[in-house]
Design brief:
The structure is a single chain. The chain is mostly beta strands. Helices cover 0% and strands 43% of the residues. It has strands at 3-7, 10-12, 18-25, 34-39, 46-51, 58-60, 68-73, 78-83, 92-98, 121-122, 126-130. Strands 2, 4, 5, 6, 9, 10 and 11 form a seven-stranded mixed beta sheet that branches. It has a four-stranded antiparallel beta sheet with strand order 1-3-8-7, with no helix packed on it. A hairpin with a 6-residue loop joins strand 4 (34-39) and strand 5. The mean pLDDT is 96.
Length: 132
């Protein structure tokens, strides 16, 4: 059974940093595209970053480029999201997801230049609050 468990969320002041973890079981993270998404209160879920299984390429939303970094730790079967220079607008529940079934995503979907499959297996999320 595939399981993704996010951790590392919390309360941080603007300008601060957090590192989110997505620990996987039942799959090997090196073999699957893994993405981070977020949903702020009253807003739709949006893509934040993803990392390709095929070549390790990464993809970022414009709003986080230069501030967030996604990485994969194969030894610990975990994907991380390092978040620096956090802003109040980064406040959201952050989810990791993987494309378990390999179903091609519509080309207009977020992230498809690097992660072209439908993200169909999701964790339960971790809350990040950026506030002074």
């Amino acid at each position: 059974q595939v399981r993704l468990v996010e951790s590392g969320g919390g309360l941080v002041q603007p300008g601060g940093s957090l590192r989110l973890s997505c620990a996987a079981s039942g799959l090997i993270v090196d073999y699957y595209d893994i993405g981070w998404f977020r949903q702020a209160p009253g807003k739709e879920r949006e893509g934040v970053s993803c990392i390709s299984s095929s070549d390790g390429r990464t993809y970022y939303a414009d709003s986080v480029k230069g501030r967030f970094t996604i990485s994969r730790d194969n030894a610990n079967n975990t994907v991380y999201l390092q978040m620096n220079s956090l802003k109040p607008e980064d406040t959201a529940v952050y989810y990791c997801a993987t494309a378990l079934n390999g179903e091609p995503a519509p080309p207009t979907d977020w992230g498809t230049p690097v992660c072209p499959y439908v993200m169909d297996s999701w964790g339960k999320g971790t809350l990040v609050t950026v506030s002074s």
